[in-house]
Amino acid sequence: MITSIAWKNVWRNRTRSLTVIAAVTVGVFASVFALAAINSSVVQRIDSAVNEELSHIQVNTKDFRSSNDILSLIPEPEKVAGILRNTPGVTDVTGRIIVRGMASTPAGSAGMEITGIDTAREKEMFTLYRKLIPGTGSYFGADTRLNSAYIGEKLARELYIIRFILTPESFSGLEAKGVPAAVIEKLKPLESVRFTTEKKLTEAYGGLLTPKEIKKYGLSIREAAWSYREGSRIILSFLDVNGNQTGAAFRISGIFRTNNDLFEATSVFVPMEELRRLTGLEDGVYHRFIARLEENDITDRVTPVLKEALPGLEVMNWKEIQVDLAMIADYINQIYAIFMVLILAALAFGIVNTMLMAVLERTRELGMLSAVGMNRRRVFLMIMLESVFLSVVGGFAGMVVSGIVIGITGRTGINLVKYSEGMEALGYSAHLYPTIGTDFFIILTVLIVLTGILSAVYPARKALQLNPVEALRGE
Amino acid sequence: MNVVEINEVYKTYHDTEVEVKAVNGVTLSFRKGDFAVIVGPSGSGKTTLLNLIGGLDQPTAGEILVAGHRLSELKPSELIDFRMEHVGFVFQSYNLIPVLTAAENVGFIMSLQKWPKEKRMARTGELLEAVGLADRHNSRPSQLSGGQQQRVAVARALAPRPEFILADEPTANLDSKSAETLLDIMEKLNREEEMTFIFSTHDVRVMKRARRVITLEDGKVVSDERTNHTA
Question: Which of A11, A69, A472, B174 could join B178 via S-S bond, C-beta 3.0 to 4.6 A?
């Protein structure tokens, strides 16, 4: 009976209850969704770091990371590789040789790290090959020559390998994307003009279009003008084992686009055999071993095991290499906690306010209930249940809406390309795929119910303090 | 047999600097089956006396015995249980629970007393029929007239078979016809169920029906007359 009355009481002032429920729903949804977006950003960043850039664990000599000495090779590489492979949790191991050098074209040059890789093995272990920009090559296919290089888009721009040209095909593409004919007409003076940088193109069309058109179609224009001539070459130069300057022309086997500008600007991957030939490094020697684990969660457990097994070498996991990312990954739980506190505090204030109004409005009725024999425990329970119902209905609705929206945006993604420059400079994707764990939903449900109960304490105490005689006399 | 015994009861309120003796040395008793009214001008102490008898308030001095319970000895929580078990209340402004139907309002106290559902429903049906609302089981208070709401309140008060019913100005908000119907029903229940009714009222219609009229003035009983009126 008490439960039934409490439920009916919630709907006594339908407008007020619905307003509170709507507020709770929106609050829970906004917070959960924001958290899911933040979470996805971190998860995607970790995923990129592990699967495209760093792997789970890297092993090299203790001074290699600081000296980049070409002769700082891993001693007894076969034995080290064996230890790595036989360590529980390790699924794959590959070796790399790494040299510091310069990449140049007739138009520009840049310093970077040139990594010689076992191309077939790395394709099995990492997903960087999936980041190939269509039309720029084929990663390292079977027919790829040895003197080929897989480079990042940022580097390609710095070396002016990528140009920006509005061709007749570009205009057709823009038309297909829904860019109005009037805008395309305005761009016609730029047809076939070659821009070496995106900035120059932007400046050029900036003088032809209105600010509104630039804002609306700028990204499409830049994408349409993006141009790369397949088979372009770059010169890679570096020191060989004897300290002599060496180098060669490498044909671009593909350009990759990740979310990490720094990685794109400083990484060049070439077939290991070719780098060995040019540097004079013998077969079977390596600067670094890269190990992949069964799952990311065991990284902290496997790392100390390897450190103990390989005492003379530097064993570092991705968290130790990218401390900032590890810190964010570790702080995500604290961020969860802060968000939860914010969600629940907003919920609590709303519920306390509503329940207090409900109690003060029903003074006479509560006096009557006490007069006819409803004891304090039952009055307390009734108010408590009303509060819990309000919280649970609002909280549940908020979570259902969050679940649906996260489900949809988790598949379609949220495009934050407008802010991509800043985000990608930090290594974060401009396309977010919100995601959140089921455990978060369960914890939040429990906390919402608890908040509902706690929020009812003050109004319920107010109700208990009512003197039935005075309450019955009250209006 | 006395249902209520009131011995030298005082109730004093301290309103800032003024001491108000709302009930001033009242001694009374009510027998089972009484149909009594307490009358008197406003401020004479009628409602205060009713609150004391019903265990809603505690006297400053004196003692009240109801069905063998010395009310001054009961703790607040015991007083609540006492009221639920022994007293039926009918209020001037009906005070039904607006979110419940007529039948649910009648069954409310019985459900607090954990009556079995079937027994509770049978008693509810019986009482709603007795108060002439057999066809309004599922009506909410807002769908009933003032007179009908007060009849539901009477049925609610009677439902758990209390020792007596305390009715504070039960006809004050009713028109003549509704008041007469209500009084007919109360008289009938008094006669058929031998239920004790104690009213406080200004209403001459109620006084005319009463078999005992107690007059209060300044918190004191100035007359206590039994009439020849028979229900």
Answer: B174
